[in-house]
């Protein structure tokens, strides 16, 4: 049978049908792939609750970096990296570092108050040269090389000196920004980030140019966000868990840290081995001759627990949900946006707990001006829905950040202090970023407990200096900012 011309299939229609099929196929593939990347199992030994370690109170120190105003002068007191640098000097066998930002890049204003990364690396190199047998490992995040798009000379110098430098492999982690990461993975991931460098460095105004694909890797918003230090000291472990980065642009930030001596270091080593292994390497062996902890007295001890990733949120919610009329919460935080935490704080206020928040106003980021999201809309919600029961003040930042991440809960004569790298956001608490906190629980009557609560009160009430401002100073009840924050928190399309 001979077909008429009008009955023959149209080449043009056939082309568009095939193109439509291809588009649908790509879309469905991207969606299925992204569902997997968002829900896939975590690498082994992440999201960990460590063993509860009993420590002598003499083996525990709370450290703080503070920037504030006194007599019209802006002052910056630092103890965290001074302590770490001294510990490097005293180490004889082993040093392990895991730090998110490890560079001295300058922001839009072009200034660095203190080249912390350079100081840190020089300390490590000097130790390796003085004692070639000391085992030193530095773990860090790909942000320091703009995800492979720019060299980091500090890393190269350390590696040339014999220090093991591990750049964390982020691909095994779950996607935190699935609306972007799905198409990015299909279209750009296979090509890597190296190539023609012609765009400005996004993290260093004076840094080398980077590739377009390096820029395109940024909105995945994945990170090894931990800030951990471990070394031997006089035959024992010395551990530091902090909110601070060795980063020139962050050198004026206010931060907090724990210094813990003794067997707690084994918990850090185990947690960091998980990071090394997901990156395809093993940590250098830990010393086998360190002294075991002695038993501690009944009235001079604290209990310390290592928490990583989502287990930080589990413990924070447990603490907040436990408070009642006679208890108190004191939260000092850089970013507060996680919906479960927000609802728990509101419920705690309804039960009659005394709740005070000291937050960064989210207005400064390395010379750039920010719009106050997420903290300002979150605070507006908390104050309004609690009927003013939740009290809020803003840290008085002037270009730097209130980078602290610390929760204090007083209940039944005990103080629980949870601090470390984790902001209270979905990205930091929902098994997306790599994070490390330590929970310390102790009687409120101990001197160190009074120091910690007293320091919060000093910041909050402007004792011995100007530290904070009242709620109205940055009050922002903008409708569009609130719903923009809610969308960004839910979707992951944000840097917080």
TrEMBL record:
Keywords: Hydrolase, Lipid degradation, Lipid metabolism. InterPro entries: PLD-like_dom, PLD_domain, PLipase_D/transphosphatidylase. SUPFAM superfamilies: Phospholipase D/nuclease (SSF56024). It is an enzyme of class 3 (hydrolase). The keyword Hydrolase applies. One of its GO terms (biological process) is lipid catabolic process. It comes from the Bacteria. It catalyses: a 1,2-diacyl-sn-glycero-3-phosphocholine + H2O = a 1,2-diacyl-sn-glycero-3-phosphate + choline + H(+). CDD domains: PLDc_unchar2_2 (cd09130). One of its GO terms (molecular function) is RNA endonuclease activity producing 5'-phosphomonoesters, hydrolytic mechanism. Pfam families: PLDc_2. Its EC number is 3.1.4.4. Residues 398-428 form the PLD phosphodiesterase domain. Belongs to the phospholipase D family. This is phospholipase D.
């Amino acid at each position: 049978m001979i077909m008429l011309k009008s009955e023959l299939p149209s080449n043009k229609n056939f082309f568009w049908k095939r193109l439509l099929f291809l588009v649908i196929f790509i879309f469905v593939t991207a969606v299925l792939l992204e569902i997997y990347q968002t829900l896939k199992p975590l690498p082994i030994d992440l999201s960990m609750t460590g063993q509860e370690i009993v420590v002598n109170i003499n083996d525990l120190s709370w450290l703080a970096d503070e920037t504030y105003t006194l007599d019209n002068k802006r002052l910056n007191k630092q103890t965290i990296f001074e302590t770490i640098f001294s510990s490097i000097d005293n180490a004889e066998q082993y040093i392990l570092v895991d730090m998110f930002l490890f560079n001295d890049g300058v922001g839009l204003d072009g200034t660095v108050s203190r080249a912390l990364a350079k100081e840190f690396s020089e300390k490590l190199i000097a130790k390796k040269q003085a004692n070639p047998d000391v085992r030193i490992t530095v773990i860090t995040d790909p942000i320091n090389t703009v995800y492979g798009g720019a060299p980091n000379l500090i890393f190269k110098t350390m590696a040339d000196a014999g220090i093991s430098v591990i750049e964390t492999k982020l691909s095994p982690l779950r996607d935190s920004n699935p609306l972007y990461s799905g198409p990015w993975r299909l279209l750009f991931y296979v090509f890597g980030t190296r190539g023609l460098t012609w765009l400005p460095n996004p993290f260093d105004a004076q840094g080398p140019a980077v590739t377009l694909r390096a820029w395109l890797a940024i909105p995945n918003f994945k990170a090894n966000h931990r800030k951990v230090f471990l070394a031997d000291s006089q035959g024992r472990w010395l551990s530091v868990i902090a909110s601070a980065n060795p980063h020139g642009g962050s050198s004026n930030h206010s931060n907090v840290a724990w210094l813990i001596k003794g067997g707690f270091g084994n918990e850090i080593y185990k947690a960091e081995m998980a990071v090394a292994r997901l990156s395809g390497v093993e940590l250098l062996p830990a010393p086998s001759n360190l002294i075991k902890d002695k038993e501690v007295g009944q009235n001079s001890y604290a209990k310390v627990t290592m928490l990583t990733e989502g287990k930080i949120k589990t413990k924070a919610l447990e603490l907040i949900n436990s408070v009642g009329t006679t208890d108190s919460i004191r939260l000092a935080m850089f970013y507060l946006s996680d919906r479960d935490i927000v609802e728990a704080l509101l419920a705690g206020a309804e039960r009659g707990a005394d709740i005070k928040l000291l937050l960064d106003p989210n207005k400064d980021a390395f010379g750039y001006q920010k719009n106050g999201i997420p903290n300002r809309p979150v605070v507006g919600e908390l104050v309004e829905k609690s009927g003013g029961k939740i009290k809020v003040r803003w840290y008085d930042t002037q270009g730097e950040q209130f980078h602290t991440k610390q929760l204090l809960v007083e209940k039944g004569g005990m103080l629980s202090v949870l601090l470390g790298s984790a902001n209270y956001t979905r990205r930091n608490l929902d098994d997306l970023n790599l994070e490390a906190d330590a929970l310390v629980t102790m009687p409120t009557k101990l001197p160190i407990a009074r120091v910690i609560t007293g320091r919060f009160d000093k910041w909050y009430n402007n004792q011995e200096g100007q530290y904070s401002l009242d709620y109205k100073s940055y009050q922002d009840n903008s409708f569009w900012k609130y719903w923009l924050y809610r969308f960004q928190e839910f979707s992951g399309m944000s840097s917080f």
